């Protein structure tokens, strides 16, 4: 649309980016596909873009802008000028001058008479015969006539006042956008964050006032397992109590090993019982998270955080069994075994730090002994060529 425009301080910036121009031209090409435009160019791609564009001709400020159809109030009866859209929208703006002068003349006449310009009648000119639609048109016409009688239609300062009100509205809109961006509502993950904080408070990691508790500080020391929450609960529930260093480090391997194995490990009774308690604990934590509204499935959760494929291998390795004797116990590659044991040693050190925070000397000694059991032989050799 070509409109008379009173410049305001918050007018949208005129677009002039070359890439945007090309994109807009391509879009207009698609929209005008099948139409023939008169003038020098036969294709809509000759129309430069994007919009809005501003300019001034003979002291008349104008704007070329896109507008949705719902913003069209009516179609005036005065005979329009024969304008070529390609010329009007061209970089030179050919044909804009006469159009602006006619628009200015219509505007002045309306300001003098205090009425809107005469418009085409949708019922007679557009041959509308639907009764309900005709009634709505009558109501709309009555409202437009009431609006035309408002003092603003004859006030010479209306354009400047409209520009001021428009600027105020844009500022208010921008203020709302910035307020939203600064609020918690703009964070998509905020609901899930509150759900997880609620779980941590329920388990005692965070106090009701948001302070990290002793249990929470101990959890911060654990970083190398598949699930730090499950690992911390394992410590505070005493699942490692009563286990030997070999059994304790084998149990922790289920939380460190990241691959799958089709071989079922053969475990001693105490370690097998501890493994069952670990699975029950994982199911309990999963149920707690699901009740808090988190999208978690028990079967999927357990499958992701617990991998017992190396429990027997780690147990035998901690007992001093040679590396060549433990590899037949699993279908896991030797390199994966080495990586898992190295990560398991790191896990033992983190559990020692957690035990120090907890003030649990027994747990500290257990993890220290477990680390010493697995730190040996080819797995921790500086070089395989000199091992």
Q: How much is the average pLDDT?
A: 80
Euclidean distance between termini CA atoms: 82 Å
Q: What coarse outline follows from CA principal-axis ratios? A: rod-shaped
Estimate percent helicity: 40-55%
Please provide a written account of the structure:
The protein is mainly α. It is built from 15 helices and three strands. The chain has helices at 18-31, 85-88, 96-113, 131-148, 158-182, 190-203, 214-219, 228-236, 245-256, 269-291, 298-305, 311-318, 323-326, 334-358, 361-374, and strands at residues 2-4, 53-57, 60-64. Strands 1-3-2 form a three-stranded antiparallel sheet, with helices on one face. Helix 9 (245-256) runs parallel beside helix 10, helix 9 (245-256) packs antiparallel against helix 12 and helix 9 (245-256) crosses helix 14. The chain is rod-shaped. Residues 31-48 have low confidence and may be disordered.
Which short descriptors sum up this protein?
three-stranded antiparallel β-sheet; 15 helices
Short overview:
The protein is mainly α.
Sequence-ordered SSE layout with sheet pairings:
Blueprint: E1 2-4, H1 18-31, E2 53-57, E3 60-64, H2 85-88, H3 96-113, H4 131-148, H5 158-182, H6 190-203, H7 214-219, H8 228-236, H9 245-256, H10 269-291, H11 298-305, H12 311-318, H13 323-326, H14 334-358, H15 361-374
Antiparallel strand pairs: 1-3, 2-3
Helix pairs in contact: 9-10, 9-12, 9-14, 9-15, 10-11, 14-15
């Amino acid at each position: 649309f070509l409109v008379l425009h009173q410049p305001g301080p918050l007018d949208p910036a005129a677009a002039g980016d070359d890439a945007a121009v090309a994109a807009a031209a391509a879009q207009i090409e698609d929209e005008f596909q099948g139409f023939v435009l008169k003038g020098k160019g036969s294709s809509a791609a000759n129309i430069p873009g994007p919009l809005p564009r501003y300019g001034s001709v003979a002291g008349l400020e104008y704007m070329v802008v896109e507008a949705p159809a719902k913003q069209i109030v009516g179609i005036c009866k005065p005979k329009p000028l024969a304008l070529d859209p390609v010329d009007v929208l061209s970089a030179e703006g050919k044909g804009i001058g006469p159009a602006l002068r006619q628009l200015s003349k219509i505007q002045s006449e309306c300001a003098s008479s205090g009425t809107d310009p005469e418009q085409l009648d949708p019922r007679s000119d557009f041959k509308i015969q639907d009764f309900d639609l005709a009634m709505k048109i009558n109501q709309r016409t009555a409202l437009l006539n009431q609006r035309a009688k408002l003092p603003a239609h004859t006030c010479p300062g209306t354009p400047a006042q409209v520009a001021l009100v428009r600027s105020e509205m844009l500022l208010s809109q921008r203020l709302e956008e910035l307020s939203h961006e600064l609020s918690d509502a703009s964070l998509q993950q905020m609901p899930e964050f509150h759900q997880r904080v609620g779980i941590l408070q329920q388990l005692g990691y965070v106090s009701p006032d948001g302070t990290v508790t002793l249990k929470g500080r101990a959890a911060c020391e654990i970083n190398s397992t598949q699930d730090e929450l499950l690992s911390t609960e394992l410590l505070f529930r005493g699942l490692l109590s009563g286990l030997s260093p070999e059994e304790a480090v084998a149990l922790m391997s289920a939380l460190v090993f990241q691959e799958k194995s089709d071989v079922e490990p053969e475990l001693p009774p105490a370690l097998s019982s501890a493994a069952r308690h670990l699975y029950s604990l994982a199911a309990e934590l999963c149920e707690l998270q699901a009740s808090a509204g988190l999208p978690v499935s028990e079967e999927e959760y357990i499958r992701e955080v617990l991998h017992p494929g190396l429990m027997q291998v780690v147990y035998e390795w901690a007992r001093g069994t040679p590396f060549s004797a433990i590899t037949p116990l699993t279908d896991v590659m030797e390199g994966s075994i080495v990586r898992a044991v190295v990560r398991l040693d790191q896990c033992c050190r983190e559990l020692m730090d957690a035990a120090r925070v907890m003030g649990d000397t027994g747990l500290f000694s257990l993890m220290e002994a477990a680390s010493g059991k697995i730190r040996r032989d080819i797995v921790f050799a500086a070089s395989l060529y000199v091992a």
